[in-house]
Amino acid sequence: MRGDRLVRSSLSVLLFLAAAASLPASPRPQTPQQPAAGKITALIPTGSVLREQKTYEAKKDMGVFWQDTVKTERGGRARLRLEDGSILNVGSQASLVVTKHDPGKQQTDLELIYGKVRADVTKIATPDGHFEIHTKVAVCGVVGTEEYLEATDFATTVIALGGGQVRVSAADSRFPGATLLNPGEAISIIAGRAPGAKRLASAEEMQRAVQETEGESGATIDPGSSVAGRSFDAVITGKDLSATRGVSFSQAGLAVKIRGSITATQIPVTISVAPDVPVGAYSLTIDRPQGPAVAGFAVASQQAVQLSLVGAGGSIQLPPSRDFSVTRGAEVPLDASTATPCNLRS
Fold it and tell me: 3-state SS of the chain: helix, strand, coil percent to 5?
């Protein structure tokens, strides 16, 4: 009897293993016919990449090609490094199509279907070069600068975050002309209406533009903005900070020094902003053994800081996350570790 049970048990195991082996493996991204555009260098779940009408789970260092659609879900974010060195930080609940990226000719066309993206664009030096981001209602163009876009089906807000001007125009041909944004300025365009006047972005808006699109683990700084020419105490708040090895800004003239004991959730620091630091949004990096965390910081005009204090400025309401039927490109899910173009032209 014991021998019969052993035989039946062994047979059951063999049948289970055979059935498991017959199950299809998770699909691997196909090598597309399209040229390479860049790769995903950081991500937080959840998201996807749509490629040739197939959806794949996104991975760090995964290649991104022309016509790919990178989509993030609630809580998901992704950072893409394009072949020319430009960086795209895609926020939560966003869908971004990499329509074209030709680093040799310096010609890039992107389509933000909905959501938030922050672009740090490599300087364009060729006469015919352009870097364009299209939304359903706006066309935004830059030449070597940083900008932030937030888009829905009916409205787009654009903020020039630093490094140069951003040119914004309506996608609707009934409203010709373009508005040039200087660093720290913003504009909103609503479907069916002429573009409104540009305005100062509040310091809070500029800080949030970094915070809500950062592909690394997030942290916050309080206070998170300042005018140039000041030194002040602040507190960085986040998770798993106790083993922090250092904190730093990459922007010249911005300095940060730890001034006390570090806990698991807070780092007391002193921040110094030199008088010549230009208006803009900047990232503070927290060096941790498990990987960096990033907090957004804004250097703003006195007027923009006052706007934040009185609660002026704000972002448009995003639509709920949803699926799209596409006829080109591909959508790739981002793994958990979480339409019309906007035109950037020289």
Answer: 10, 45, 45
